[in-house]
Design brief:
Blueprint (H helix, E strand, L loop, with lengths): L2 H12 L18 H18 L6 E3 L2 E3 L6 E5 L6 E6 L3 H20 L2 H17 L1 H12 L3 H21 L6 E3 L7 E8 L2 E5 L7 H13 L2 E5 L6 H12 L7 E3 L4 H10 L3 E7 L2 H11 L5 E5 L4 E5 L5 H13 L9 E7 H16 L19 H16 L3 E4 L14 E4 L6 H4 L6 E7 L2 H9 L6 E5 L3 H10 L4 E4 L18 E2 L4 H5 L3 E8 L6
Parallel strand pairs: 7-8, 7-10, 8-9, 10-11, 12-13, 12-17, 13-16, 15-16, 17-18
Antiparallel strand pairs: 1-2, 3-4, 5-6, 6-20, 11-19, 14-15
Helix pairs in contact: 2-5, 3-9, 4-6, 4-7, 4-8, 5-6, 5-8, 6-7, 11-12
The structure holds adenosine-5'-diphosphate.
């Protein structure tokens, strides 16, 4: 199902009579629907006052509607309430945005690195100054607990800060010449207009880690955020204007994902597509980019193993596995998808882990103490349900949870499933929800074999107190990122990206800059003449 269809489907589902029963059976310790709505309403009013609740696309520095005035609704996944309508744009608006980015490229790419750096720094300062507003907006449209949203703002803004700093370090090279009257230079130049397509699970950070380096290198961008969470993208774009970034450098369109994607792919002016999302859409974009031989960076799905060895520190492993699994209700591509536990520690780990998971409070992201919000939509819950059903039918055992939460809507109980086998869906595919499958193993070799037995290769986690083992296993894992005794490892200063079908290219760090740069070799000959 396309994201647009899913959004509409979700919206209909959210407003269906059955979902209204939400207010009739709140948990004793959790606020009622009415209280939640009040909180959300207050947030909306505050955001309107601050000018950050934008409901139009941004093209050439102007806030615009769809040419045919069509709109889509953006809903709060915790309550089903409509936050605002945004334009349902398509090919026409995307082509306008591309033209605007193409025109702005000429002057933006000619600025000095220091000038671009200053704009980015100003943007970073504004993102941080509006941390509270942006955090609330993320919780409102995406559902994650406010504490996590505020963390995302710091993390996401960090990519802009890092890019502001790194802009000044895009060095070329001088190569020793092979002939005495020649000089050989390497210049690094911006690739041009970039199409940035992003998902709903990190409404800010997935954008900043593309747009920061793109702008730092001298590129201009057309952003297409997820239709489920476009509001944070629009607020960030508003702040880019306030930072003085010239009109046309940052454009935002949203609506019909396939039409927008096709327009970006077809344009000869767009020289690069950078995408974070599902493997299926990533493959389509990669194929579509071949028509105009565009550069492509892809951050696709994962199937992260979290390997707990007998020699692990139990507390560290439990804490790390919970962070790796249940962050954002399990809805990240680096979330632990399979918890592989060595036989000697299996029982102890399963008990301690289940006990800790049981303490995770589920509820509206605005409620103090909540550790897990709703899933993004009904389709996400149905996927989780089908994976759990498949595991149970093949002999796995529910140790905790295993069903929808009594809060209703798209809330799902934090779940632990024991005795999972590699042929079950929970092992083969990304569940993208709050379900931790435990798979027992005997030896280090078996753990590595199980961990690598997938087409994905994004993140992996290892818990062990042996330095030698941590090196051996890290080297053997076919993954782009490895966390040792740590469940959350992403940072703007380190390279993020996958191997195998988890993607191409890296984001963040000095390596992430290369994705937006062309290398030009210049040979200066005939040096001896005047
Ligand atoms: P998810 O299942 O996480 O929503 P998707 O890959 O469907 O992952 O969505 C990630 C981003 O890709 C979203 O912005 C979505 O609108 C966009 N998208 C979906 N289908 C297409 C498409 N055919 N062309 C371009 N972008 C698309």
């Amino acid at each position: 199902m396309s994201t647009l269809m899913r959004a509409t489907h979700t919206f209909t589902k959210l407003l269906s009579p059955s979902s209204r029963s939400f207010s009739l059976r709140p948990s004793a310790s959790l606020p009622t629907r009415h209280q939640m709505s009040t909180e959300a309403e207050n947030v909306i009013a505050r955001l309107k006052n601050s000018g950050l609740l934008r409901s139009q696309g941004l093209i050439a520095g102007k806030w615009v509607d769809a040419h045919d005035r069509k709109t889509i609704k953006v809903c709060n996944p915790a309550t089903g309430e409509v936050i605002v309508d945004v334009p349902c744009m398509g090919q026409k608006e995307t082509n306008d945005a591309i033209s605007s980015a193409y025109e702005a490229f000429y002057s933006w790419s000619k600025l000095t690195a220091t000038e671009r750096s200053k704009f980015l720094r100003k943007w970073y300062d504004l993102l941080i100054a509006h941390k509270e507003d942006l955090g609330q907006l993320i919780t409102l449209e995406q559902g994650k607990p406010l504490k996590e949203s505020l963390g995302e703002v710091s993390y996401g803004a960090g990519f802009i800060e890092f890019s502001a700093e790194e802009a000044k370090r895009i060095y070329g090279d001088i190569i020793p010449a092979t002939l005495p009257d020649r000089r050989l230079f390497v210049l690094k130049q911006p690739v041009g207009v970039v199409g940035a397509i992003t998902p709903w699970n990190f409404p800010l950070a997935m954008i900043t880690r593309k747009v920061g380096p793109a702008l730092a290198c001298g590129c201009t961008v057309v952003i297409k955020p997820s239709e489920l969470t476009p509001l944070t993208a629009l607020a960030a774009a508003e702040l880019s204007l306030q930072a003085g970034i010239p009109p046309g450098v940052v454009n935002v369109v949203m609506g019909n994902a396939a039409d927008i994607g096709d327009a970006l792919l077809a344009s000869t002016q767009v020289r690069k597509i950078t995408f974070t999302g599902s493997t299926a859409v990533g493959k389509k974009l990669m194929a579509g980019a071949s028509g105009t031989v565009k550069r492509v960076s892809l951050e696709l799905g994962g199937n992260a193993p979290c390997i707990v060895f007998d020699d692990a520190d139990l507390d560290v492993a439990v804490k790390g596995a919970i962070a790796a699994k249940f962050r954002n209700s399990g809805q990240t591509c680096v979330c632990a998808n399979r918890v592989l536990v060595q036989e000697g520690i299996y029982e102890k780990f399963a008990n301690a882990f289940s006990k800790a998971v049981q303490n995770l409070q589920v509820g509206d992201g605005f409620t103090e103490g909540v550790a897990q919000g709703p899933l993004i939509n009904e389709a996400a819950v149905q996927k989780v349900e089908s994976f759990v059903k498949d595991a149970i039918s093949k002999g796995a055992k529910v140790l905790l949870g295993g069903k929808r939460h009594s809060l209703g809507m798209t809330f799902y109980e934090p779940t632990v499933i024991g005795g999972v086998k590699s042929e079950m869906l929970l092992s083969r595919e990304e569940v993208f929800g709050p379900v931790a499958p435990l798979l027992p193993f005997k030896t280090e070799e078996e753990a590595i074999r199980l961990a690598n037995d997938t087409n994905a290769g994004l993140a992996a986690y290892v818990f062990t107190n042996s330095i030698q083992r941590s090196w051996r296993v890290s080297e053997a894992l076919e993954y782009g990122l490895v966390g040792i005794n740590e469940g959350i490892i992403s940072t703007e200063v380190a390279p993020f990206g996958g191997v195998k079908q988890s993607g191409l290219g890296r984001e963040g760090s000095k390596y992430g800059m290369d994705e937006y740069l062309e290398i030009k070799y210049v040979c200066l000959g005939n040096m001896n003449s005047n």
